[in-house]
Design goal:
Shape: globular
Radius of gyration: 18 Å
Strand content: over 45%
Structural class: mainly beta
Number of helices: 2
Strand order of the largest sheet: 4-1-7-8
Helix content: 10-25%
Low-confidence stretches: 1-19
Order of helices and strands: HHEEEEEEEE
Amino acid sequence: MREVAVTLLLICAGSPAVAGPGAGNFNLVNGTPGAIGNVSISRAGANDWKPLGTARSAGASGSVQFKDPDCAFDIRADSAGKPVTWAGVNLCDVKSVTLKQDENAGAWVDYDQ
């Protein structure tokens, strides 16, 4: 009986449902004071950028179709002619990510879970 329990445990440990949900589709909101363009995403620290879409005006939002087993990502966009990176964005279990930027505070995100 113990062997059966151990076998079931090993099978479940390898299943994706037990391993975690990973990142999924989310709504991306431009919460910066101006338009952003060339929006792209990369696994945190990987520097392998993939485009996410076109320019978004201040306050605009759009759905991002996304699926990845990881949770931590960097998002990069051009803002006021300069590249800005939002590092370590957690995309697991979120509905919406709002990109924020301030000259004094830097770049950060707000989440809607």
